[in-house]
Write a structure and sequence with these properties.
It contains 12 helices and 12 strands. With about 325 residues, it is α/β, with parallel strands linked by helices. The N and C termini lie far apart (about 55 Å).
Length: about 325
Amino acid sequence: MAARVSDPVPGPETEETVRSSTMVPNTHLMAALLGERDELLRQIETAFPDERIAVQGNLITVEGPQSSRVVGLFDELVLLLEAGQSLDPPKVARTIDMAREDLRPSEVLGATVVRAAKGRTIRPHTAGQKRYCDAIVSNTITFGIGPAGTGKSYLAVALAVQALQSRQVNRIVLTRPAVEAGERLGFLPGDLMAKVDPYLRPLYDALFDMLEPEGAQRLIDKATIEGGRLAFMRGRTLNNSFIILDEAQNTSPEQMKMFLTRIGFGSKCVVTGDKTQVDVAGGRSGLLEIESILAGIEGISFVHLDRRDVVRHKIVADIVDAYDRASLEGKPADGR
């Protein structure tokens, strides 16, 4: 762990300018911390333009009003490196956001959701994702609401796999409403399950990403993992199950009530959706008013994710921002 020192230093513009410093334990960590050709150091300097960062050997000294915060950021990055994680510009950008909120990136990014196939570890990448995972663990029903790319579905599947592996539940149930977004399901070839499959494909993709394909297929064949259209949930009671309703913005209010009342003893439920992508006829989405209806019920949690939680290509976050701005300005989605 790096050693940190903070001292007030007289400055011409203020009564005192704070100087903080930290010593990085070894040269190998120092090289990884600064990045190739110091690109990560430059990124931090750009994010904190009022701070002056000086590097001498393994000593990092920061002067400025937020010097302690910046030094704390370097210390947190060192902890991530010591834990075996690698650093790149997107990860450093997320740690900067967390540091500005006085959060500890090492605690957020160091959390393990599940050990996936081939030794991979699934972790939250942002503070919002960590809140989302914690809410799922702590509550019977969790609503994950946010734009594309925030990991809503992927993390829900990861926690479902973890619950199944630890025998907290006996099966995983995946469902989505069968609502077309510009393409008719009936035109697809094959029997009923083949027609439904495109809706569930993103959830199954996540499953196969976390489990060996053969193992996942065995669980599907044994009905330990099952999926189907939301309409097939009517009349069922699901005990000892981890249930995921994906794309919930395309449920009607009646379907949402029907789904939530299927939950039986020993079960956990995650509902994911994006309120900006409603395709249900007439815009009557069961997700839009659900928080006001269920607010205050013990065991139900709502987690809102935003563009800071987008972990796909940076352009996805930029697209989310552009649509949000267009919505605030009253422009239609097609830009006319």
